[in-house]
């Protein structure tokens, strides 16, 4: 069965419409194992034209007196007069199907020039078919690679973290049993070992999250952002309590998208809003949404350290920790993950300029439900 893009089908349709200026009906068909199927036609359903493949004449001036044409049920059923058909032959030599047109009346001036036009159009259709097949093959290959990566990614992350977990465990044992004998400098060095191991563990988790965006097997569906953000706030409860944060959530829409990645996006934004706070300050975070035509825009605003206008684009790049963010824990991947999720949804994310204090993140989370 033909696998054609919408763009290709539109081009084929325009070719067929051009042919109609001379003959009444035009169509393209595909051969299957035991039949042929019309996959694009103008004003007709299901005509067959095996004559050209069987070696018959590509031009039949009057099908009503042609013995071979009369053997085709569609000839009589549709009252075919003048008929032209040429094969759609791929570069491999395979005959994909036919490019046909006919009229219910005899058209006396159909000749070699019309046939040459038909052949050029059939060659164009063959080229479009091969392009679409090549694209489909490439997409299948990429999907296979994504599937492989999604399978081995967690294993790699686990294997990388296993020795680090051992380092952390033995560091804790060393501190608990021999801490008194290490001295001030030894205790400081042991703390550095533990801190470095925890940082690398977090880096591995963040890289895995960044790499796995878009590898979800979850089909897109309706996502209630209000319910989703409520679960995110609950998951961040320990950080909310530790920072004495206030999070205000307005009425949020239902959108079409992927629930898991969207949850990661809003979790990263809310966690950042609470983390990047002025020393001694308490985070105040507001998440609201408003309609913008047929789309929704959500904003996450905070009273934190803010982002310089010169850094607004860079902060979404992997491992970038702009300005004052360097003084806080983190790997520089939270906003990079958020941007990949937004793009996966067909949406956008940006840091608004000229904010008097803190940061305002504006997210178009995708299509409305």
Strand content bin: 15-25%
Order of helices and strands: HEEEHHEEHEHHEEHEEHEEE
DSSP, total strands = 13
Sum up the overall morphology in one term: elongated
Largest sheet: 5 strands, antiparallel
Q: Tell me the radius of gyration.
A: 32 Å
- Determine the N-to-C terminus distance: 32 Å
Q: Helical segment tally? A: 8
Helix content: 40-55%
Give the low-pLDDT segments: 20-27, 29-55
Structural class: alpha+beta
Could you give the order of strands across the largest sheet?
2-1-5-4-3
Mean pLDDT: 76
Looking at this protein, list some descriptive labels:
single chain, 369 residues, alpha+beta, five-stranded mixed beta sheet, 8 helices, 13 strands, 47% helix, 19% strand
